[in-house]
Specification:
Two copies of one chain form a homodimer. With about 650 residues, the first copy, chain A, is α+β, with helices and mostly antiparallel strands. Chain A contains 18 helices and 23 strands. Chain A has a seven-stranded antiparallel beta sheet. The first copy, chain A, is globular, with a radius of gyration of 25 Å. Chain A starts with 5 loop residues before the first strand and ends with a strand. Strand 20 of chain A pairs antiparallel with strand 14 of chain B.
Chain lengths: ~650, ~650
């Protein structure tokens, strides 16, 4: 395997994008202060989380019972991770003191041997590491380690990192194949990728080995998780695990032998991210092949056009090839964040830009859809078709919310969106020893050193408007700039310092040689709106088309197009006009306008007739589509991605 | 309120129908002997039910722990009910001895005070009547009483009836508003309609009052079930009841105030059946109005074209108006049996034939679909669209089976289908003091006395073939014959003894005066295949059509039409040809043949492309549809009811 791509230092990237800038700003302005209140139970209209209180009890500063879900500690860790990235991004000066205080508290909550988990320390000290299926101890530790690494990278302060190391050292002692060690592994993967991060900042190979152990041990026979379940006989934390299946947590066979994206979608993505990391670190072709198989199965058969994954609302999981229902799916925001994580790592170990097509798809559609423009409401679940009144409680639709929700007590997605936006730069730029890679066309600045050259990059993208990107590079010496040519580029024109460059991408990247001094690069990807269809295996999308422009999936909303969106049909070759952005949306992204027809059955009309003869009534209608990621920012209403085609 | 319709004595009805005869025969040939083995744990490849064994333990004939689900006793009661109807139908001579023995065993299992429930008698004697939400004690008692009444009616033997009375007397003492009585009511309704039946054969008004009490007390504040749940704090029998909602069991408000079909579909139907009975018995207009509102809401907004109800696979329940997904629904076979029960009673108390349109729809489609032609495989769940590979375990589709299943351990539907088929005559004929009503056009014979006249009826129906029905009546005196004019009759021609009768139906019935002697009636309903559309509220069916002929819904199966049925489109006015019945199906019902087109997207073809440009490829295809009720009798494959329309 060749040398891998690395991330740039987040401290040296600034987001200036008209669309993403809006969301990134919300992290410091809204998400972090709001979550701080939640962690401290300071919101009057919200269920208490007990999060900080649990740490105080564990630290001996307060008395009481530990409350909240078993993995509630991760809320604080994800908050700290967001804070760290925000500090790195130059917007968190006022946060560092608060973070340091909380880190002190975490330190006090840690047991002398390094153990750190408020649930088990306080409520069940004799049950540590006995319920890996449900207990989330290793998952919680993983989020702690990720936060500690991020905080160290942002501030250079070692206290939190040392807490994490002490905990990781304990985990290395407890789990393994040696005498007296438990041959367990997490029910919810996360620790593995965190240990790789910890290895990368500390250079301590034991952490890398431990991550590898967890991946290698998983799914072996005799099956550790199965034995644990049978020993206990009943679920301890989650009654819905009464009928647990090992595929749910990808523990049905060793990951290196797996071929398909299965089970709980977030678990799969976190596991695969670690597998890709390990494949890269260890030059492990078998592991890389397994990653490739799972990635291909996912992107070729089990992913929504919005980059969403997890077709089953029940258990938030993958189902089977081509089973992609549009209204009952889960498509968790966190799972699409996982797609970004896995894709980034696959690109890093292969040098192949095409992985970023999917990172982009997930980011521009499902991940951003997870949060509203104001930055205070969230979707966990991201359907492609919504009729609000059908989203009823206690039914098969109870997971689908027709409007974004306030931050929940058990909240993985909001802080996950927070940390993803706060560290967005990692998905835009990468580098190797010869130069910089541009993976996303999000307006921003970056600077870095490549060998002896210092490169300062300024990217101004109007991709979503006119398909163009301007890049200025100030370089102190020679270097390469590798620009991803995205899948939707119909033709790519590239002009470097006034000279037209012939596009000959390698592994999806166009390499440009940068000379010392100022370089001006002008890209025109020729992006126009287009109707997309699905493979005929996808029964839900047969005879239908979805509208995309560049990476953005568009949708119809009730606001512009009225109710009963399922009555709408379009012609296969309907021409699309780009019109002014919808007023209340952000990023100056055009609305797409086109003609369609509404077809209604007059033969079964009125309040009291459910079925009747077919007597179609047709009406020509003007339709306006807005970016899917910004749906439901203007009140509750129907939404539809896949349009019926007149055939 | 006027005089009500009554059922004819089942002993005097014989089914001779070419379609239904096939199924009815299976009750004595297959269902009853097979279930007897199941009850006795004599099937090697099946999980034991412990049913008879539990009774033996309760009777003191065996030692051991009581096993099986909490309502396992009902299996035996439903078996006995089927046996009783089969005896009444003249096919159960060899069963009576066995039934008498089992009834003796039941008698021994009954406690001295009348209590009868093997779970609570053996395993939890101190917990009787403490878990009405989940414990199914009153539900189980209800099935026992229904069986006892049926057995008494079939054989005239009183032993089982006396067991039932003793049990009912206990229930009357335990539950009520008096001093020392519990103000409870069942979590799963069933006892109410059973008590009405018991009242009708015994004349004991206490049973009618007790049924009324259960309906009146239900859903009152303070809420008994809610208090019970809160007192216990956690579910005892069904972990999925962790988040119980009172609408699930229609206990959110008093039934008489309810307006919509909500919650668990079978519970709703059983409750409404009792409500209709009580409305009739007590001339209670308020209760009748409530029944009417719930019925209308169900049939106008919440029912499949197949007569299926319960849109939500999760919790087997109703959802909301027009939410009728075709592939994820529950549409339990038992719930459609409930539609037949409720509809029959509504017709009885209103004299309105239109209720039988829905009884017929449920019977001819969903109920018969519940069993295979061979009589040994069953569907609980009846979707309108199936892609077998999408029916995956542990996902949102786990309730949907692409092939009928063997009799399950927890088996409500198979014995419910058994007792419904064995008593099919009750849905065909009814009577009042002036004559006989013909509600279904199922070939059969019947005789009864109306005032001083004896009427012998012979009906030969070729409704499903040519829309015609021949009826011969031999009458010893004058009487009326009231013939339901079904909704799908495009024009009705009626000839009585060679004289054409002008059709002027009243409440859906055409009344014919029968004179003493032989009367020959010839009906031609002019039934042709037709494309049906849904109300535009039903998003799942927008732009689609379903094919019906008479009461039968037709469907496409993979066998004749290939895979990827979702690619098929038809013209709104596609002409339909009636062709030879499919060879392996029964009842001599024609296949319907027509043209369509298959539309495939070439722009996203092959193994590795999930989405691509829209490039439609069209191919004309010949399609053949078979009756929905007989789908999946010729191997596993896709199935589709709602066809896409070219608009």
């Amino acid at each position: 395997m060749k040398k891998h791509l690395k991330q740039l230092d987040l401290k040296r990237i600034r987001i200036t994008d008209s669309l993403f800038g809006e969301y990134v700003n919300k992290v410091s302005e809204k998400i972090i202060p709001h979550q701080w209140k939640i962690l401290n139970d300071q919101l009057e209209d919200s269920e208490p989380t007990y999060c900080i209180r649990n740490f105080r009890i564990a630290a001996g500063e307060e008395k009481g019972e530990r409350k909240g879900v078993v993995f509630q500690d991760t809320d604080l860790y994800k908050w700290l991770e967001s804070v760290a990235y925000t500090i790195a991004g130059g917007r968190g000066e006022n946060l560092e003191e608060l973070a340091d205080e909380v880190i002190d508290l975490i330190g006090k909550a840690q047991e002398p041997d390094g153990y750190l988990n408020t649930y088990f320390s306080i409520n069940a000290p004799t049950k540590k590491w006995t319920n890996l299926v449900e207990g989330h101890e290793l998952y919680t530790a993983g989020h702690m380690i990720e936060a500690a690494v991020a905080y160290y990278q942002a501030t250079g302060k070692e206290k939190f990192l040392n807490i994490a190391r002490k905990n990781a050292d304990l985990i290395c002692r407890v789990f393994g194949t040696g005498e007296g060690q438990k041959r367990g592994y997490p029910g919810h993967q996360e620790i593995e990728l965190a240990l790789v991060k910890l290895y990368r900042v500390t250079g301590e190979r034991a952490y890398l080995h431990q991550a590898e152990y967890f991946i290698r041990e998983r799914g072996r026979n005799p099956n550790y998780l199965q034995a644990e379940i049978e020993g206990r006989g009943h679920p301890e934390f989650f009654p819905e695990f009464e009928r647990y299946d090992l595929e749910y947590s990808q523990a049905h066979k060793p990951p290196v032998e797996q071929d398909e994206a299965v089970g709980h979608a977030v678990r799969e993505m976190y596991m695969c991210s670690a597998m890709a990391d390990l494949a890269g670190e260890n030059d492990d072709q078998q592991l890389k092949d397994a990653c490739q198989r799972i990635w291909n199965n996912m992107t070729d058969r089990r992913m929504y056009i919005t980059g969403g994954i997890g077709s089953s609302g029940f258990r938030e999981r993958f189902t089977t090839d081509y089973d992609l229902p549009n209204s009952t799916n889960y498509s968790e925001t966190c799972a699409s964040i996982g797609v970004m994580m896995f894709g980034q790592r696959m690109a890093a170990i292969t040098g192949d830009a095409s992985y970023y097509d999917y990172v982009e798809k997930a980011l521009y559609n499902t991940v951003i859809a997870g949060i509203n423009i104001a930055g205070d409401r969230y979707f966990y679940v991201n359907p492609l078709e919504v009729v609000p009144e059908f989203c009823t409680e206690h039914t098969y639709m109870e997971h689908v919310k027709p409007v974004r929700q306030k931050w929940f007590g058990v909240a993985c997605c909001p802080p996950n969106v927070g940390r993803t936006l706060a560290s967005l730069g990692q998905y835009i730029y990468a580098e190797d020893e010869y130069g910089v890679y541009i993976n996303q066309f999000i307006s921003s600045t970056a600077d870095t050193e490549v060998r002896e050259s210092r490169l300062k990059i300024k990217m101004n993208s109007t991709l979503l408007q006119d398909g163009k990107v301007q890049i200025e590079v100030q370089s102190s010496g020679p270097g390469n700039l590798n620009i991803r040519i995205p899948w939707y580029s119909e033709k790519c024109e590239c002009v470097q310092n006034g000279i037209s460059i012939e596009i000959q991408p390698e592994k999806g990247y166009q390499r440009l040689s940068i000379s010392p001094g100022d370089t001006y690069i002008s890209l025109d990807f020729h992006v126009s709106p287009r109707w997309m269809g699905a493979n005929n295996g996808v029964r839900a999308d047969a005879g239908k088309a979805a509208l995309m422009k560049g990476p953005l999936v568009y949708c119809l909303e009730e606001k512009e197009n009225g109710r009963y969106l399922s009555e709408i049909f379009i012609e296969e070759n309907t021409s699309i006009e780009e019109t002014a952005p919808a007023e209340e949306l952000v990023g100056n992204v055009p609305t797409l306008s086109y003609k369609g027809i509404r077809v209604r059955n007059k033969g079964a009309a009125g309040e009291n007739q459910l079925y009747g003869n077919v007597e179609l009534e047709k009406e020509e209608v003007s339709l306006q589509a807005v970016p899917y990621c910004m749906w439901n920012n203007r009140g509750e209403g129907e939404m539809l991605v896949w349009h019926k085609l007149r055939v």
